[in-house]
């Protein structure tokens, strides 16, 4: 059987779960690497460049590292790209803070919108009083 036919038939035989796993793996692979904050908003107000420029993220296969002015904070994270918009959850291990968010990756741009606690944002808006943060990250190329 030609390889291209196998690639078409296998997902049908395995069902939607296999397709979901492929998407999760792809997003998990695409997000890996170093990201630098370009812009940010908190509760509907754009954050000063001096505040956003000092924030960076590094994603590995199993963890996210928040880097801010020489201080690194490790976090466990999960992705669920099957949701619309895609979900990201993370917990800063040393301080025990949990965040629920949404994300969008387009090329070398990663948008993260999140809240602390149990109420996940439903869009990339950060209206005043909504207690949401939106960060636009750019992938660092080496």
Describe it.
The protein is α+β, with helices and mostly antiparallel strands and 142 residues long. The protein has one domain: Lipocalin (Beta Barrel), CATH 2.40.128. The chain is 23% helix and 45% strand. The chain contains 3 helices and 9 strands. It has an 8-stranded antiparallel β-barrel with strand order 1-3-4-5-6-7-8-9. A hairpin with a 2-residue loop joins strand 1 and strand 2. The longest helix is centred in the first third of the chain and has 16 residues. The radius of gyration is 17 Å and the shape is globular. The N terminus is likely disordered.
In short:
With 142 residues, the protein is α+β, with helices and mostly antiparallel strands. It has helices at residues 3-14, 16-31, 49-52, and strands at residues 33-42, 45-46, 55-59, 64-68, 71-80, 86-92, 97-106, 109-116, 133-139.
């Amino acid at each position: 059987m030609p390889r291209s036919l196998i690639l078409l038939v296998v997902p049908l035989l395995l069902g939607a779960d296999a397709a979901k796993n492929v998407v999760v793996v792809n997003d998990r692979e695409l997000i890996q690497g170093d990201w630098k904050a370009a812009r940010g908003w908190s509760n509907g107000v754009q954050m000063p460049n001096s505040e956003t420029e000092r924030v960076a993220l590094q994603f590995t296969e199993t963890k996210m590292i928040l880097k801010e002015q020489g201080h690194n904070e490790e976090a466990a994270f999960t992705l669920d790209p099957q949701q619309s918009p895609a979900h990201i959850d993370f917990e800063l291990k040393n301080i025990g803070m949990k965040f629920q968010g949404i994300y969008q990756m387009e090329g070398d741009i990663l948008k993260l919108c999140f809240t602390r606690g149990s109420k996940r944002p439903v869009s990339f808006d950060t209206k005043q009083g909504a207690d949401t943060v939106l960060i636009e990250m750019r992938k660092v190329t080496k």
